[in-house]
Amino acid sequence: MEVDQSxxxxxxxxxxxxxxxxxxxxxxxxxxxxxxxxxxVMISAYxxxxxxxxxxxxxxxxxxxLESDCDITKSEVNTFRSEVITAxxxxxxxxxxxxxxxxxxxxxxxxxxxxxxxxxxYPDYIKPVGPNICDKLLIxxxxxxxxxxxxxxxxxxxxxxxxxxxxxxxxxxKLTTVQGKTFYKWFQKSLEYTVWYISTSKRPKNSPAIDxxxxxxxRKIRQHVGKHAQWEDEPTLPPQPxxxxxxxxxxxxxxxxxxxxxxxxNVMRKQTFYTAVNVYLEAAARYVAxxxxxxxxxxxxxxxxxxFPIYGMIIDPDDRPQGxxxxxxxxxxxxxxxxFMASITAKKMLDDDYAFAEDLLKLQKALKFNRWRxxxxxxxxxxIKDRDYDQAIRLLSNLIKAGNWPKPVLYRWRVQLGxxxxxxxxxxxxxxxxxxxxxYALIKWAKFELGSRSPLRCSYHSDSSYFDGYISRA
Length: 474
Fold this sequence. Notes:
Its main location: nucleus. The chain is mostly helical. It has helices spanning 2-16, 21-34, 39-52, 56-67, 79-90, 93-103, 112-121, 126-145, 156-172, 180-199, 214-228, 241-258, 265-291, 324-351, 354-367, 373-385, 389-402, 407-423, 427-446, 464-473.
């Protein structure tokens, strides 16, 4: 500690004796890095800026330090320094925050920690300046992108907005003057960030990891948005994701039927739409994370294996096979089916309403759904479940041609493609895809001991013999 104090004192003396203000600033920055909480360093920085222009960052830091409970040794207090301390005591925090926002264009994230510290200390100022902070972050994100079409939401500014700023603003209860469309915009930004977060295996360095379940955080943001946008109160949800999704759907159907009889139809329409979209994407992502982990960046299994529908998706919970391995496998399949059915239920709710279908199409273009490969894999299974084999063939053909895929994924899609052709009684075409897929599966199977867990497997379902028929006919 003595070394640090002597170093900061030496750096401070260099700053005070510098030839010009730029050199003095450079020495002071070094002194700040050496002793960031030193009163003498902070007050000297403020004095320096007072001679040119007031720096809200230095002012805020010194003012917070003066109002804190910690003991400060105010050594060598001269007349000018006394005047500075007196002036700081009269400085309004709201003025500091507004000045912070006004002098920053695209780099507000550099001072975001200090801004949030001010807002937490004085939450009454959230109402006039809070939304402006969000706008500055989103504008800065767009500026950083520079029109780059490949720019993703996984950047520092969006991370700060979704994980830090939005929760503080929502929990403050001070956003009474913010319009509903602003809340919906914030939810869309949060939804886009969450989906990209769970879809990307290698995130940029400026987008750190999220603590906890990203979907749970998004659900909380949606509930905060609903509270401020005058939505109907949601029921208390259980912690288990499958149960919470189904309970949300059950409640959603109730308000959906009441929507046409409500005087506040537009608000209920927004609530139904955004909640259904949230359930649709969350359930689909959780389904793919179980059935094809290699398509997701976050998986619950260390092994890569495939579960996928060939024909039919119905699993009878009473038809449980015996053995520890089969018990775990069966439970995984039951959980997978619950996610799958929850997602397609929400998707059909959106598709069956013309207004919702149009809104969903706009949202798909805005958030670029076509860049999420896992969602396309889900849509394939959705088409097979509805026996829309032509649609499944189109999706599968485009994906297989799109690029290099992991072998388990390619195996999955080739089997599904061959099965769809076989279901349409195009046996010769079916054999082309099934032959390579079955050979690959047999080679992989041979590497495991008899009775061990295969890394590649088709799912159990009530019509499992149907797939066996495909292979024998092929």
